[in-house]
Amino acid sequence: MNPFLTEEETVSFPPVSSYQRAIAAFEALARSGGCPPWLGVRSREDVLIDAKAVDERLRAGESPPLAGLLVGIGADRVLAQRLARAGAVVLGSADPAGVAAEPAPDVLDAAVCTGLPADCRGLVALRPTPGLVPGHPGLTVLARDVERGQHVLAALTGPDESDPASREWPASVRLSAGEHPHIAVPSAAGLAALSTVDRSAFAGTVDTLRAAGAVVEEIPLTERVRDWAERPATTLRGHDALCLPASGTTPSPAELTNALETAAVAFPDGRGRGAVVITRAFDDQVGIDVAGLLSGIQAGTPYPSTGIELIVFGAYLRGQPRNGELTGVGARFTGFAETAPHYRMVALPGTPPQPGVLRADRDGAALLAERWLISPAGLGTFLAGLPAPLALGSVELEDGTHAVAVLCDAVAAAEGTDITSYGCWRAYLRYLSTQRPTVPAPRPASG
């Protein structure tokens, strides 16, 4: 029986209701001769009642993020309630140790276990920073892909009064790995115990990372982990993440995550036992992004629930000179935005070239910008480095909503050149690139 439903076995159109999904799960269990010993399935009647309740919520206009998902979880009332609020249907109670040893059957979309599996078996495993999920410092979510796993993990995350050790996201949490994350990988000596197949599979993973834009550096794994254990503050210093095979290294990913305060994502590599990305505590999204680079599947929103939308123009756009001030604090590009047709853009004097955007009483236009998500502390750092005459203000977007944006002082803007007609900064830069300086014709030599 394949672990979890494969994409070919799911029905994407028309949408499958939670009730239909539950019926299909019980039929699959009957065909397979029953459930594995680690999964205690609830009564069919109770599961179907819960599934109908989710469908009723959808018909009433709610949009629970986990609607249609069947989940197996241990006997934890707090976490089961969180899953139910998010729209998941708990199929049964799962023995966490058993799930890790023998991943869930194809009746489940996700299962909660303890510890990282030594073999991904086609599944993704997300182990959050200890304390983010109350009561379970070693909790891991197994799912069919990163996106499903992240959504389930997000529903479980958040402090609870029953666990004094549970934690909030810090104000400085990174929301993105950036376009060129620095990834450490074991040197050849650290991979010597791997089989030829597993070594080849991991080499393919490293090649994919490089092709996706990551900066990869080999490190002496055993020595470096020993240093990190002695001085935890130096963990992964100089790197955004560590990528290593799911098994066959010393220490193993499971041993490393147990010894250090880290987050981890394990995923299949298509050939060997899989690979694991390990990050510093609270850099969970960095690991998820790196795994997304390798799997090609990424959730539309980041795992951390904190974040402030910021609208930027000019030198702060991707690929422009000051964009590093956003990526340096872990800000996340989330798409493009267009302002309401009430704004002007001027080219300000100075280096690097930078436009000023301000609201216009007349002759305004809609301007193209970028949306970024930034942590509260990151926004403070960004604001501290914002040069005059730029300042943070409120901008009206085309849909009538408002967001924080980088705008310009009106007095300073009066000294700039109006470039509103170009509609966006990049269009103006393209225009400048077509302008060739005029070279005067050489004068004839005087006799």
From TrEMBL:
Entries under Gene3D superfamilies matching the protein: Amidase signature (AS) domain (3.90.1300.10), Gamma-glutamyl cyclotransferase-like (3.10.490.10)
Pfam family, one: AH_C
InterPro entries (alphabetical): AH_C, AS_sf
All copies of domain Allophanate hydrolase C-terminal, residue ranges: 308-429
Superkingdom in the source lineage: Bacteria
Protein name: Allophanate hydrolase C-terminal domain-containing protein
Taxonomic path: Bacteria, Bacillati, Actinomycetota, Actinomycetes, Pseudonocardiales
